[in-house]
């Protein structure tokens, strides 16, 4: 019933693309300005420079950057946006002298986003900050129109979910790589469908180097090619690994302790979900204040979405779009095996893991109209609403300082 009431809204926005794009700029713009307002309207605030890392890389930190002093015990460590910024600086200066304080064996493999930032960083540190905003915004807009070209007329109205995804917005809100990776991947897939294989290989390689979950779509595409005995496409999809493998071989040479299986250290089946639920029970038993409880429960809609996502690939006609079903299930596998300390303890960390699920859902819907999509769509819209409430009304200003004066 609710979906039937929402369908005319989807159809209305589909018929007025200017309004869809305007809605995108309105939501992303309000979120951006809401963040800047807390920190003297300074665009560097969204990069989340932390005191600890800024001090170790002072020469590469913008002079007027917002530096987060941090809360008790974290020394002002900031957030991941700064990692991509700092890793872009050596590339802009045509060297590979990695920034101080970061784990190269884990961070250096994800060189795709820093490489894009570095193109702007050639013109200075301020230009690099601009580049972080530019790539997030321009790539999701561009990939949105590529995605629409991939969808049939029945599915096109739902494409607005991709543009207004709360997970893509959440990734942009802290200027990290998830939205960039997904956008590049969708553009690459468009070229794959249209048999323009050179752009597909280059863009897919860049997507993998931006973030490894790009493989969650590329791997099922390879499986589909094997199943159909399409040898040309088997070779094409396999070719996307050449550049990433070469980069990883270089890293193995540069960092003797580096190993490609490092990411498996973070695979802890259901540990994150179980620990998160235990933390809720502990908080309820302690009789803590409602603000702490609300902050903890902000992740609970993601738990529900996860279980909806586990169920979704097994609905409809299983033989249709099975490569996208595998892709969707792999995304849910990533969420389900994410540990508590690195992921489920922080809303932003676990939320961003759902980013790829929205375009994969649309591609699956494009193949099978009978999948049980309505609950996942409705809950995604609900999470978008909650995210905007959090951004505009709940998120507090953190302790910060502009520049290094006083340190």
Automatic annotation (TrEMBL):
Regions that span the bilayer: 18-36, 115-147, 159-192, 198-227, 234-253, 296-314, 326-343, 377-395
Keyword Flavoprotein attached: no
Keyword Glycoprotein listed: no
GO molecular function, one term: glycosyltransferase activity
Keywords: Glycosyltransferase, Membrane, Transferase, Transmembrane, Transmembrane helix
Protein name, entry field: Dolichyl-phosphate-mannose-protein mannosyltransferase
Source organism (scientific name): Leptospira wolbachii serovar Codice str. CDC
